[in-house]
Each structure stands twice: as C-alpha cells, then as structure tokens.
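Action item from last week, closing it out:
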Amino acid sequence: MPLEVSRGITWANTSFGGLLFGLVLGLVLAACSARAPKTPGAAYEKLAAAVDNADAEALFEALDQETRWSWMTVQRCHREAFDVVLSNFPEGEDREKKLRRLEAGASAETAADLFAAKSGAAALAALKGRLPDKPDLKVHNNEALATAKAGSALRFLQIEGRWGYAGFAAEAEEVKRRAVADLELIKISATDYERARARSAP
C-alpha cells in the first residue's frame, strides 16, 4: 500500500513522528519478548525453520537483537527522510529519485518487512545448505557457536535475554550507518532549500 504523507509537514516536524515511532517500537518489542528465543538451541531452531521454509520475515525474527535494532533504525530513518524529501525538496528528477530509493523503507509496516524486501533473499541463500541437522552448540557466556556444514561457524548472541543469529550483524550495521548519514544529508539539503525559498520570497 503506498504511503500517504502530507506535503505540509516540514522536516522540523518529523521529530514527533520519530518519538511516536519509538513508542510503538517499544510496545512491539515488549509484545515479542514472550516468544523470543531464550536459549541458543531455541534460536537455532527458529533459524533453521525460517531457512527450511524460505521465510525471510521469520528469518528476521531469528536474528540477534543488535541486527534487528539496526534494521529498525533503517526503517525509521527512511520514513523520516521520505517525509523530509516529500515536504521540502522541489519537484524534479532528484526529488523523484530519492523518493523511489526511500519508498520501500517508508512504506514497510515493520522492520521485518524491510529486511525481507532488501536482504531477505540474499540472507536465505547465504544460509542454504549450511545448517547441520543436529547442531553442536558451544556456549560461552552470551555467545554460542555451531559448526556449519560449509563455511565459518554459525554465531549466536544473547542480548537482553534474547538469543539470535548474529551472522548478518556487520552488514546490518553498515546499512544502518548509511541510512543515518543519508538522513542527515537530506535534512541539510532541506534546510538549504528552505533558506533559498525564504530569500526568493517577495
């Protein structure tokens, strides 16, 4: 479903949207905590089921908390950046290009949806054929490793009582960094456009 945003909102007003998003995010995380994997074995089973079913959204739910937080940040940044571009950028090729690039994140209902759309297929492909039928999990404090059928060991982390697969953490962190930086640049451009309009006003 396409995202509908009022053109009258300026980027300065999007802080309320960010606050609201944070509150909703907190409620969602609280609701999900009851079914979060509490052991490395449960996290592995969740991961294996997602890969077996080729379900990218279920794969997101099997990831470690830091990776999930990174994608939630990407979703928030893309939503805010979309609003800024829609409300402040002048019509033209640059505006339309940015809107197209940000639309998936802005219209995604959840971070799981965004992950599935952007990285789900590649992530599932990277795990296919690597998961052993009976993992031998070596646990040390908040980290667990399982020998894979191919490639490096499968790494799981426990954060705030939740275990999850951490194999895509570095990639998610990089995507998050780009999204945060992109939002800041878009805000700067929006300010420049506002100043230019103010100078040209009669």
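Closing note: The two ends are 40 Å apart (CA to CA).
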